[in-house]
Every structure is written in structure tokens, then in C-alpha cells.
Write a structure and sequence with these properties.
Strand content: 5-15%
Radius of gyration: 25 Å
CATH class of the largest domain: Mainly Alpha
Helix content: 55-70%
Number of domains: 2
Number of strands: 3
Shape: elongated
Distance between the termini: 38 Å
CATH superfamily of the largest domain: Cation efflux protein transmembrane domain
CATH topology of the largest domain: Alpha-lytic protease prodomain-like
Structural class: mainly alpha
């Protein structure tokens, strides 16, 4: 008796995962060095905030690599349906790590505001150049990683791409903050920690968005109506199918599990009915977002 689902390895998806991870590791590591140096020499809390964000990016990328590798392992006795559900768990952990980074930034910014006016920050020069350059790097990383996420249909890589986009906003906000803080006046000196607070709030916003999406994958949220209709039309086009009258489609990890009832003629031989069953299952599972389809054949009423 077979107790473990047969799964074929997907080398194309593994290749896309590996490419996204290398982009994240190399890009974020370079930004950690650049932003860290700028924060040290300028004394800017806003730049420090973006540097902390980049450090967490490197850490969670390592964790992401481990999680994606584990999610691609074939089914075994402990996970007879495979390990795909590990991927949204990794995405949720990424979001929590982003939240910790945001908390550290806002804590430091509040301390600086409560301490009162600060010394003016030297905004022009390498600090501004590094922030502008990091923003451009993050735009490029966002575009590249988002394309890989769409091709691999990966929520974890999609979360990583979204984090790159938030870093663009962080760099712009930090740049505005240090430019304002470089101006004379006690009020303007607080622009830098205020910019850091805005950066942290943006981080929290992305954390909530990632958690909301991936909690749906973990708790079995329903498929979108348009996708359910696509599944219905795909099954209906198979020769021998008369009616598709029940479809339950929910997420098990990042892909769908479909349970559907199909009516066929009660007069046909069992072997023909079995062929129709196989054809419907193959057609539905051929859709990009569907992982498994369970087909229940029923006799159609004349």
C-alpha cells in the first residue's frame, strides 16, 4: 500500500530559488557595509535604521535559503504530502524578523527625540550618495526578484521582493531626514530621528501585509472566484464531462488543493469512466496554481 505521495523534483523552480537567494545575499551584504559606514561617520539614526534593515535582510536570506531548500524535499513518512507548507512558514518568520528590525529602529529614534536637539548632521557627501545608490540597487533587486517570484510562484521570494521595495522607501525617507537635519535650528535637528520613525512604520506595514498573505496559505483560505471559474471551465472541456457541480478549492501552502464532483453518463464502461477521471485530474492539475485535484465521479441524470 502506497503511503507517500510520489513527487517529481522541479529543477527549474530550484534554479529560480537559487538565483533569487544569490541576488539577495550579494546585494544586501554590499549595502550593509556601505550603510554601516555611512551611519558610523555621519551619526545619523535614519541611516542606522536602513543599515539595521539591511542586516536583517542578510540574516533572513540565509534562513530563506534553508526554508526553500527544505520545501523542495520530496514527500516522506513524516510529511506524506510533501514539504511545500514550510514555505509560507518561512515567509511569516521573515516578516517577524522585519518587525524586530523596525522595533529596534523606532526604539532608538524615540530615545533620540526624548534627548532633545542633536548636533547637525553632515548630509552632503558620501552619506547622501550611499542612500541614493542603495535606493537604486534596491529598485533593481526588486524588479529581478519579483520576476523570479512570479515564475516560481513562491510566496517566500515574493515577500523578499516586497522587502526590497520597502527598502527603497526607507532610503528616500532617510535621505530627506538627514538633509533636513543638516539645516540649522533645534527643530530641524529632530528630522533625522523622525525620518527613522517613518522608516520603521513602513517596515511594520510590510510586516502586516506579508503575515496576512501567508497566514491565509497556512490556514487554508479559499481560492479567488476567478480562479475557481477557471478550474470549472478546464474540467468542463474534458470529453465525457456533462456537469461540474461542486468545487472546493483551498490553499495548502502556496498552491491549491481542489475537490470537485463531475457528472458523467451512467451507461459508459468503467474503464472509460476511469479515463475521464484521469483526464479531468490531469487537466486541472495542469493549471499553474493547482497542486492536487480530487475528482469524484457521479452518474448524470438524463
Amino acid at each position: 500500500m502506497q503511503r507517500i505521495r510520489h513527487q517529481d523534483a522541479d529543477p527549474e523552480r530550484s534554479r529560480l530559488y537559487l538565483r533569487a537567494i544569490w541576488i539577495a545575499v550579494i546585494g544586501n551584504s554590499l549595502l550593509v557595509v556601505a550603510k554601516g559606514s555611512a551611519a558610523y561617520y555621519s551619526g545619523s539614526t535614519a541611516i542606522f535604521a536602513t543599515a539595521i534593515d539591511s542586516v536583517t535582510d542578510v540574516v533572513y536570506t540565509v534562513f530563506l535559503a534553508w526554508g526553500l531548500w527544505l520545501s523542495q524535499q520530496p514527500a516522506d513518512d513524516s510529511h506524506p504530502q510533501g514539504h511545500a507548507r514550510i514555505e509560507p512558514v518561512v515567509s511569516a518568520v521573515i516578516a517577524l524578523m522585519m518587525g524586530l528590525a523596525g522595533w529596534e529602529v523606532i526604539r532608538r529614534a524615540f530615545s533620540q527625540v526624548l534627548a532633545g536637539s542633536q548636533e547637525p548632521i553632515a548630509a552632503w557627501g558620501w552619506s547622501a550618495v550611499i542612500l541614493v545608490g542603495s535606493g537604486l540597487v534596491k529598485v533593481l533587486m526588486y524588479v529581478l526578484v519579483r520576476r523570479l517570484a512570479e515564475r516560481a510562484r513562491s510566496p517566500a521570494i515574493s515577500a523578499s521582493a516586497r522587502d526590497n521595495l520597502s527598502d527603497v522607501f526607507s532610503s528616500v525617507t532617510a535621505l530627506v531626514g538627514i538633509l533636513a537635519a543638516s539645516l540649522p535650528g533645534s527643530v530641524m535637528s529632530l528630522a533625522d530621528p523622525i525620518a527613522a520613525m517613518i522608516v520603521s512604520l513602513w517596515i511594520f506595514r510590510n510586516v502586516l501585509a506579508i503575515l496576512h498573505e501567508n497566514m491565509g496559505y497556512l490556514t487554508g483560505k479559499a481560492a479567488e472566484p476567478d480562479l475557481v471559474e477557471q478550474i470549472h471551465q478546464t474540467a468542463r472541456k474534458v470529453d465525457g464531462v456533462r456537469v461540474v457541480h461542486r468545487i472546493i478549492a483551498d490553499y495548502v501552502g502556496p498552491q491549491l488543493r481542489v475537490d470537485m464532483h463531475v457528472d458523467i453518463s451512467p451507461e459508459i464502461p468503467f474503464r472509460v469512466a476511469h479515463d475521464i477521471h484521469s483526464a479531468v485530474q490531469e487537466a486541472v492539475e495542469g493549471l499553474e496554481t493547482v497542486d492536487q485535484a480530487y475528482i469524484h465521479l457521479e452518474p448524470a441524470e438524463d
